[in-house]
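Morning!

This is the sequence you dropped in the shared folder:
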Amino acid sequence: MQICRFNDNRLGLVDGDKVKDVTSALDVLPAQHYPLPTHDLMIANLPHVRKAITTAAKGAKSYALYDVRLLSPIANPGKIIAAPVNYKKHLDEARADPQIHHQNQIAEIQRVGLFLKATSSLVGPSESVTIRHPDRRTDHEIELAAIIGTRADRVTREQALAHVAGYCIGFDITVRGPEERSLRKSIDSYTVLGPWLTTADSVADPSSLDLRLTVGGEVRQQANTRDLIIGIADLIVFATSFYTLMPGDVLLTGTPEGVGPIKPGEVMDATISGLGSMRVEVR
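The structure's back. Tokens below.
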């Protein structure tokens, strides 16, 4: 199942090149009162929402995909966790290019660990990336994003993937400089998720997905998730050894080689096999 959020926070079921408006499925969510939960309500109740979507889709109003404004498929992640230099060739290019490393030590992911991005950096593909520091180099980074579906604390490798609700395409946009990663990557609009959530049962093998990113039609990044240094299950094990993952938490699994600068007016097109494609403008 492929589920999107579109226009004015509508819920959609993607069906080929159409989107069925199944917003009424959200009526199954429990009522909440202050203080609100620190996780995503839809993802926490996804099995119930999926049943309601199946019912709501019958006779639902449809829209052409190209006519809707796609938002992030996850509205309220409690955490956005990211894996730095998790492809060997990207590790090599980061160490070789002073415009990337800025005299920072670029250590292996096993040593440097994971990092967190501000949830305020999250947008959907139709909301664009807005360059905050036009005087500095800002780079694109395509990544597979895994969305946590159930509470996960100190899980084993065998348990890890059972905690994943689904997958989507992610952008981890970064401004280059000497500051810590979390600061440079937490700028408003510097995390993009889309075009929709593909539920885990629709992804046969997340460890064998092709990634491709073009800018202005030029291929910049192209790889397969089999090339990850630390795979998805082991990333979840790593993350949950430090903190509890909750429904809706986002795990960005790392970007392959080919990162490069983007400028206002350019358009990024990203595809991950089985998960769809998304177009993101740079402003």
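Headline: The chain has a mean pLDDT of 94.

More detail when I'm at my desk.
O.
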